[in-house]
Amino acid sequence: MLHNLDRLKTFYHIYSGKSIVAAAERLHVSQSAVSQSLQKLEEEIKTPLFIRLHKKIIPTAAGEKLFSIVESFMSDLDTCLNELEHSKEVPSGILRIGSPPEFGKTYLSLITAQFMSQYPEVTFSLELGHPGKLLPMLREGKIDFILLDEFLAKKPYSGNLDIFHFMPVAHEGIILTCSKEYYDKHIKDDLSFSSLSKQDYISYTADNLVVNSWFKHHFSKSAAKFHYVMTVNDHEAVVAAVLNHIGLGVVSSHLVRKELESGRMIKIAAPDTEIINTISLVQLLDKIPTIAEKLFAKFLIDKILSISDEYDQK
């Protein structure tokens, strides 16, 4: 392995200009410095790269082969540096966004499409998942920022949350609900823990985190051994299962407002104050955002607030 990559840069300019003099002018160094750099490179790889004919130099077969590799690297490097410089002035490049599955499936594709219509040089990589998956990816720099349910964030994540910056963008009520038919048949106004623990439940994940968190908050008791009859990683599917009388499910109250007002769904009255979940935009605390990240963060927050306003007006 080469110990000094600057010598490859010198070789590149010698080959490109077919002259040590031209390389010295291009690099703003003396001709002797260029000659010494080339000599040390040839000594290091134990192969002559040029044939010296008086004041003329002719590449050897080894020189031709090395240049074909170095030229590609230098070209790619110039392109990359130009793109990085361009991205400081014009929103461009790829944005890597993490989101809860429900929000990502329902809204994120539309929001990113609207943003790209304004800034066509920006592309997106979307990662849908829950906090236990997304926070480590954010910590390791694999995602630029994520939307996070703070209600769930601390439960599955054992790392240090102090390295993140949380920017609240929306709030939602988290409720336990069932269909009216299920309520009248199985619960009958008995909202004790003993009664609720005997019911059927619909969960988002195999670890039943959401349901368990609801019961931990309201009863300080675990729901781990409850009877889970369905696991489905989609908010709309949970709502559909509830409306089909399969069991109880934990949902966002604003997403089922019509069903609650019509009486098709019944909110299980909790013995404690309602859980208010904060949806936050999360970034690494010390990261300096690009212009594209700054613009999209503001764009995303504005869109989320407008979505919340639409639900409030319905």
From TrEMBL:
Entry keywords, A to Z: DNA-binding, Transcription, Transcription regulation
Limits of the HTH lysR-type domain: 3-60
Pfam families linked: HTH_1, LysR_substrate
Gene Ontology terms, MF aspect: DNA-binding transcription factor activity; transcription cis-regulatory region binding
Family label: Belongs to the LysR transcriptional regulatory family.
Classification via PANTHER family: HTH-TYPE TRANSCRIPTIONAL REGULATOR, HTH-TYPE TRANSCRIPTIONAL REGULATOR GLTR
Name used for this protein in its record: LysR family transcriptional regulator
Organism of derivation: Candidatus Thalassospirochaeta sargassi
